TrEMBL record:
A molecular function (GO) term: actin filament binding
Span of domain Talin IBS2B: 7-118, 128-240
Name the record gives this protein: TLN2 protein
InterPro entries per record: Alpha-catenin/vinculin-like_sf, Talin_IBS2B
Organism: Hemiprocne comata
A Pfam family per the record: Talin_IBS2B
Record key words, sorted: Cytoplasm
Subcellular compartments: Cytoplasm
Protein origin, superkingdom: Eukaryota
GO cellular component terms attached to this protein's record: cytoplasm; focal adhesion; plasma membrane
A GO BP annotation: cell-cell adhesion
Length: 243
């Protein structure tokens, strides 16, 4: 399925270009570009799922790496379409145009990451390191969203935020063990666990910081510590990658 994935991913990059240029053109062209990209991402998701299935059920962690890679591309495309909608018919120096360029850059980064992952899957010696690189990139993107001024749609209790930090503790222990063993399967498992642990922590932290009972000062501290925790964890993953 590798060639089919590469071909479909290339088509998606072309759709991305049309989306970005479509923001400055007619509504019809923009609609066509959005529809085309939606069709292409559906095809890409299907062929990646077939590729993951072809690996066999005895390697579920690598299957998860592939599924995570296509999920990242789909999320980036959704964000890009939203940014395109916001930038439609706006002048070139409008802030929404800069957001559009940023979203397009993330989109291309995630497609590139998917292609690297697909190629690495066939090489057992690089599977783990590639999975770790993809996770580091994913966490950096999640941190950017966390640090943005966007207010979460819902809030949660401080207790929920505390509960989610336990996942970081578990993932840290797994990362240290993977750094010691240097086995590719341990590194892949660490990469998959780290994605979820950090993402859940950031979501819970931001939701808790916007709880109605939380003061401005406490909110700022919570957001600062959420950022510092993530940066510290990224440093740990970089060390595992180096090892």
């Amino acid at each position: 399925y590798r060639e089919n994935i590469l071909k479909t991913a290339k088509a998606l990059v072309e759709d991305t270009k049309l989306l970005v240029s479509g923001a400055a053109s007619s509504q019809d062209k923009l609609a066509q570009a959005a529809q085309s990209s939606a069709n292409t991402i559906t095809q890409l998701a299907e062929v990646v799922k077939l590729g993951a299935a072809s690996l066999g059920s005895d390697d579920p962690e690598t299957q998860v790496v592939l599924i995570n890679a296509i999920k990242d591309v789909a999320k980036a495309l959704s964000d890009l379409i939203g940014a395109t909608k916001g930038a439609a018919s706006k002048p070139a120096d409008d802030p929404s145009m800069y957001q559009l360029k940023g979203a397009a850059k993330v989109m291309v980064t995630n497609v590139t990451s998917l292609l690297k992952t697909v190629k690495a899957v066939e090489d057992e010696a690089t599977r783990g390191t590639r999975a770790l690189e993809a996770t580091i990139e994913y966490i950096k993107q999640e941190l950017t969203v966390f640090q943005s001024s966007q207010i979460p749609e819902k809030t949660s209790s401080p207790e929920e935020s505390i509960r989610m930090t336990k996942g970081i503790t578990m993932a840290t222990a797994k990362a240290v063990a993977a750094g010691n063993s240097c086995r590719q399967e341990d590194v892949i498992a660490t990469a998959n666990l780290s994605r979820k642990a950090v993402s859940d922590m950031l979501t819970a932290c931001k939701q808790a910081s916007y709880h109605p009972d939380v003061s401005e000062e406490v909110r700022e501290r919570a957001l600062r510590f959420g950022t510092e925790c993530t940066l510290g964890y990224l440093e740990l993953l970089e060390h595992v990658l180096l090892v």
